[in-house]
Design a protein that fits this description.
254 residues; alpha/beta; Rossmann fold; seven-stranded parallel beta sheet; binds 1,4-dihydronicotinamide adenine dinucleotide
């Protein structure tokens, strides 16, 4: 456990379950006080289980796409706000109809907008809100949870999802340029197929078909993504900025 981590509060969005919950747990185990933000009530019990394991963890209700709600972050975090050191933009949605993404020709514009609002604008809003405390201490880490769908074609995710995650990589690059001079790095993780509630929502046969393309021959676990995020959040990643790390068992190789 790093002594420095204790003074670097980590805010993780979409942390009630799945990859976000694993990231919060991994950062907490590394000594970071963690704030878990989510729209689901489940976020309370996820944070409570971290506290019962002896970690400092707080749950907040937050819809990352709600600009007014995001503006309340300093108040919601209270005394933790000035100690913010790590932001992980993980909240995301991937709407499916009977386990399959709608094709563009069948996609309602409202569904398109909602995915962009949560996956991309949400990360913009939360990142923008967090810049003042990160820049003030001249040390910070921002990590975007993108997707393999941002890196290559996807037969599982919808066009809105692929567009939002591709946009997230662009946002990360721009922020990396803007915040680098202030000591804040911005990097992205692009997970392949990870076993979470989101992935389990796919139509039967989808995950099995994906396996053929994964040299490691299996889906990944949320913890395997969390380990890479913890590395990016640490001092060990001090010279990584604007990078994207593919965590997919080799399913996508640039
Ligand atoms: P999940 O659906 O299990 O968890 C996503 C979490 O985000 C949920 O707790 C949900 O309530 C929360 N969330 C959704 N909308 C929100 C909003 N507006 N504000 C705040 N929180 C919100 O999904 P999973 O699999 O854990 O995904 C986490 C991230 O990883 C997402 O960004 C997803 O796109 C990405 N990802 C997942 C992959 C997978 O195979 N599971 C692959 C590539 C990327």
């Amino acid at each position: 456990m790093s002594a420095a981590a204790r003074d670097r509060v980590a805010l993780v969005t979409g942390a009630a379950r799945g990859i976000g919950a694993a990231i919060a747990a991994r950062l907490a185990a590394g000594g970071h006080p963690v704030v878990l933000a989510d729209v689901l009530d489940e976020v309370d019990s996820t944070a409570a289980s971290l506290r019962s394991a002896g970690h400092e963890a707080r749950a907040i209700r937050l819809d990352v796409s709600d600009e007014a709600a995001v503006a309340e972050l300093p108040r919601l975090l209270g005394g933790l706000w000035d100690r913010l050191g790590v932001l992980v933009n993980n909240a995301g949605i991937s709407p499916k109809a009977e386990g399959r993404a709608r094709r563009v020709r069948d996609m309602p514009a409202d569904e398109w907008r909602r995915v962009l609002d949560v996956n991309l604008t949400g990360a913009f809003l939360v990142s923008r809100a967090c810049i003042p405390p990160l820049a003030a201490r001249r040390w910070g880490r921002v990590v975007m949870i993108a997707s393999q769908a941002a890196r290559t074609k996807s037969r599982i995710a919808g066009a809105h999802y692929a567009a939002s995650k591709s946009g997230l990589l662009g946002l990360a690059r721009s922020l990396a340029v803007e915040l680098g001079p202030e000591g804040v790095t911005v990097n992205s993780v692009a997970p392949g197929r990870i076993d979470t509630p989101m992935a389990r929502g796919a139509a039967s046969g989808t995950n099995e078909a994906f396996l053929a393309d994964i040299p490691l021959g299996r889906t990944g676990s949320p913890e395997e993504v969390a380990d890479v995020v913890a590395f990016l959040a640490s001092d060990a990643a001090s010279y990584l900025n604007g990078a994207t790390i593919d965590v997919g068992g080799g399913s996508f190789m640039p």
